[in-house]
């Protein structure tokens, strides 16, 4: 990793997403001395992580210019409060990298002018190095900076590059928010098992192991999910009976399409 005290990396907002990435970076062995966390309200878990690795922390952004990356990971609704406090730390040697849903490049330009800026959309599996992050760099972002972004984000999972800012909202609806859909599906599978008569604890164990196992199988085999589904589905068997319900007109596909569209719509609203 190319970060150092001379080329620092500052994380503004170590909440759910920033904290997940930070945990992933620590597990990956990134030099804690190159990182500064700026967040006035640390959770006990993140406080313990900082202490364990000796990571620097400040409640507010120091005035010194950051000739490296400032990763902005605060809520979109906080931007107007937080960004003015970063202005004195930015010049043309600073790269602003935002993980915020909705918040457009023009919002950063309003505060920082035309400095190198990139938006990205990670997801919380970054915490276990199984995230996927889509990145949209503005034209000001140099190849060297793209390389640094790649190093940083690939340390916590896959990285894909976007050629249009509009795509970020769509990515948000699929993979940014997506882990929550999978967790919710796991909850519903557990509840369905309980409703069918299984003890709650056993239903939960079965649901979690099934979702993790199916995910790992998709990951390791690299096989098309439709093929993996067919492999489970014996003709006229139990899975076919269940899939008749899940794949019906009132099944998962129309609901998922509606859910992703709702997330995309909300991302556009957050742009303000
Ligand atoms: N959660 C997710 O799965 C994903 C989130 N994102 C994006 O990541 C961003 C953060 O979301 P998330 O992590 O969920 O939200 P959190 O609220 O968990 O994290 C934001 C963090 O910023 C802190 N904070 C508040 N004010 C300041 C300040 N002035 N300076 C620095 N830090 C401050 C918050 O403290 P406090 O909590 O005390 O207010 C909190 O620790 C959002 O823009 C979101 O769109 C993107 C992809 C996935
Ligand atoms: O719910 C949100 O707005 C954020 C963005 C993607 C995931 N969490």
UniProtKB/TrEMBL annotation:
EC number: 1.5.1.2
Domain annotation Pyrroline-5-carboxylate reductase catalytic N-terminal: ranges: 11-102
Keyword Nucleotide-binding: no
A Pfam family reported for this protein in Swiss-Prot or TrEMBL: F420_oxidored
Domain Pyrroline-5-carboxylate reductase dimerisation, residue spans: 165-270
Superkingdom to which the source organism belongs: Bacteria
Catalytic activity: L-proline + NAD(+) = (S)-1-pyrroline-5-carboxylate + NADH + 2 H(+); L-proline + NADP(+) = (S)-1-pyrroline-5-carboxylate + NADPH + 2 H(+)
Residues that bind NADP(+): 73-76
Pathway info: Amino-acid biosynthesis; L-proline biosynthesis; L-proline from L-glutamate 5-semialdehyde: step 1/1
Keyword terms: Amino-acid biosynthesis, Cytoplasm, NADP, Oxidoreductase, Proline biosynthesis
InterPro entries (alphabetical): 6-PGluconate_DH-like_C_sf, NAD(P)-bd_dom_sf, P5C_Rdtase_cat_N, P5CR_dimer, Pyrroline-COOH_reductase
Similarity field: Belongs to the pyrroline-5-carboxylate reductase family.
Biological function: Catalyzes the reduction of 1-pyrroline-5-carboxylate (PCA) to L-proline.
Protein name: Pyrroline-5-carboxylate reductase
Name of the gene: proC
């Amino acid at each position: 990793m190319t970060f150092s005290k001379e080329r620092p990396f500052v994380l503004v907002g170590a909440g759910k997403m920033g904290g997940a990435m930070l945990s992933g970076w620590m597990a990956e062995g990134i030099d804690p001395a190159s990182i500064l966390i700026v967040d006035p309200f640390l959770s006990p878990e993140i406080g313990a992580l900082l202490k364990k690795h000796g990571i620097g922390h400040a409640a507010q952004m120091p005035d010194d210019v950051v000739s490296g990356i400032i990763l902005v990971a605060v809520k979109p609704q906080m931007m107007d409060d937080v960004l003015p406090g970063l202005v004195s730390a930015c010049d043309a040697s600073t790269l602003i990298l935002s993980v915020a849903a909705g918040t457009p490049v023009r919002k950063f330009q309003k505060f920082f002018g035309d400095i190198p800026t990139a938006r990205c959309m990670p997801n919380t599996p970054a915490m276990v190095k199984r995230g996927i992050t889509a990145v949209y760099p503005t034209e000001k972002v140099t190849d060297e900076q793209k390389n640094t972004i790649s190093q940083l984000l690939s340390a916590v999972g896959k990285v894909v590059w976007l050629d249009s800012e509009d795509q970020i909202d769509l990515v948000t609806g699929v993979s940014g928010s997506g882990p929550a859909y999978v967790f919710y599906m796991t909850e519903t599978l557990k509840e369905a098992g309980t409703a069918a008569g299984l003890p709650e604890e056993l239903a939960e164990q079965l649901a979690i192991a099934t979702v993790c196992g199916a995910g790992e199988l998709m990951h390791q085999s690299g096989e098309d999910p439709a093929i993996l589904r067919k492999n489970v589905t014996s003709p006229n068997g139990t899975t076919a009976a269940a899939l008749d319900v899940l794949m019906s007109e009132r099944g998962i596909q129309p609901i998922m399409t509606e859910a992703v569209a709702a997330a995309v719509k909300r991302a556009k609203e957050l742009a303000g």
